[in-house]
Amino acid sequence: MKASADMNNGKNSGSGQPKQGASEELNVYGDVYKVLLGGMVVSTALFVVGIVRALLRPQFVPLTPDWIKQHYHWPVIIEGIRAFDPTVIMLIATALLILTPIARVIVSIYAFAVDHDRMFVLVTLIVLLVILLTVVLGLFGLK
Predict the structure, then answer these.
(1) I need a labelling partner for 55 at 20 to 30 A (CA). Which of 28, 74, 122, 142 fits?
(2) 72 DSSP assignment
(3) CA 76 to chain centre
């Protein structure tokens, strides 16, 4: 009898089902996992599509600063999506791969809030603020 009580560790209401709080906690951390996995799978799929498309339609891409400056604008990206341009597809895949951990930080804030873990909410908010500050300073060209 003691062994079964030890196995439950208080995480079970006796009905074979986890307590509501434990179930909520598992669901929230499962959401964090799904965000990371989804971002990785979608970005990998976009990279594969971009590489296959580039192999089917080879073109020279001069990665000079001028070329990069010309191609990192919304109208060019939207036109590249319409034309199924492999460079734009891989650019989107790269952006998604970079944004996936940021989405994980945002979902983690929610997870810690649901778990009522104020210290980790604060720490994760600080991490998010550092990320945002870095992006803003990068946009202003701070050197």
Answers:
(1) 74
(2) S
(3) 24
Tell me the mean pLDDT in the region 124-139.
Answer: 92
pLDDT in tens, 92-127: 999 999 999 999 999 989 888 888 889 999 999 999
**CA atoms in the 13 A half-sphere facing the CB of 108:** 18
Q: How many Å apart are CA 94 and CA 51, to the nearest integer?
A: 13
Do residues 39 and 85 lie in contact, with contact meaning Cβ atoms separated by under 8 Å?
no
Amino acid residing at 61:
V
The distance in angstroms from the start CA to the end CA of the chain is 66
Neighbours of 29 (CB within 10 A): 16
Instruction: Confirm if 87 and 71 have CB atoms less than 8 A apart.
Output: yes
